[in-house]
Write a structure and sequence with these properties.
This protein has 280 residues and is an alpha/beta fold. It has a single domain (12-263), classed as NADP-dependent oxidoreductase domain (TIM Barrel, Alpha-Beta Barrel). It is 40% helix and 15% strand. The protein has an eight-stranded parallel sheet with strand order 3-4-5-6-7-8-9-10. Helix 2 (57-71) packs across helix 3 and helix 3 (91-105) packs across helix 4.
């Protein structure tokens, strides 16, 4: 089990990915973003997750460079993820999108590159591009985001390399048990975006009761539940006290009974788009 912020899970290709990272969805370019990334690295975070569509890769890159310099660590110590957007899904377009992301980030390589959404008829060509990048040693690991079981099955029919990660919406109201079991069976690491349901779970009475029992915040309970479920987690925050709080989850363990109680909050309820039915 994870004991500290820098603990990693070994992906099926041998790459080490930190269990806990910071996400920057909806954080605009600017000093707040640069500061948040730098602060996270300063407080021991070693995983940063962004995406082309967030429009903030330049600021994330700056935050990483300043953060590693301040912390006196190597670029290799930080695990950086980005994602190819739907408009760029296609063999040549995806290769170009990768170069574009690297240029904006100011990095020589990414640790993980994901297909952001499973656009029908397009994700297989994009996957071929990711395989090319991976085989050329340009990226440490490749994966997908928002893929359901049937998307993964379809992709793997033709794939030379199976995805190492599937990053999906995952929280106590959307526990995705079948998808989780499928990914585990195929050695694809599940990762959670929007683990706190964009803040909607913070006043849930069950979670508040559990939090009080452990002397923790609701956010810390949810993040701990993710980790004990074997799910990599990237909560988003720009505030230093939240960045610190979100990482203070390694000094306690939820009981099996509490894990089951949290599982029981599932309503198959999404806060983000539905991967079965999206039009962007």
């Amino acid at each position: 089990m994870t004991n500290n912020l820098q603990d990693t899970i070994t992906l099926h290709n041998g790459t080490e990915m930190p269990w806990l990272g910071i996400g920057v969805f909806k954080v605009e370019e600017g000093p707040e973003l640069v500061q948040a990334v730098q602060t996270a690295i300063g407080h021991g975070y070693r995983s940063i997750d962004t995406a082309a569509i967030y429009g903030n890769e330049a600021g994330v890159g700056q935050g990483i460079r300043e953060g590693i310099e301040k912390a006196g660590i190597a670029r290799e110590a930080v695990f950086v993820t980005s994602k190819v957007w739907n408009a760029d899904l296609g063999y040549e377009a995806t290769l170009a999108a990768y170069e574009d992301s690297l240029n904006k980030l100011g990095l020589d390589y990414l640790d993980l590159y994901l297909i952001h959404w499973p656009v029908q008829g397009k994700y297989k060509e994009a996957w071929r591009a990711l395989e090319t990048l991976y085989q050329a040693g340009r990226v440490k690991a490749i994966g997908v985001s928002n893929f359901q079981i049937y998307h993964l099955e379809d992709l793997m029919k033709d794939a030379v390399i199976k995805p190492m990660v599937n990053q999906v919406e995952f929280h106590p109201r959307l526990t995705q048990k079948e998808l989780q079991a499928f990914c585990r069976q195929h050695d694809i690491q599940l990762a959670a975006w929007s683990p706190l349901m964009q803040g909607q779970l913070l006043d849930d009475p069950d979670l508040q009761e559990i939090a009080t029992h452990y002397g923790k915040s609701v956010a810390q309970i949810i993040i701990r539940w993710d980790l004990q479920n074997g799910v990599v987690t990237i909560p988003k925050s720009t505030k230093e006290h939240r960045i610190v709080e979100n990482a203070a989850v390694f000094d306690f363990q939820l009981t099996d009974a509490d894990m089951q109680r949290i599982d029981g909050l599932n309503l198959n309820q999404r806060v983000g788009p539905d991967p079965d039915n999206f039009d962007f």
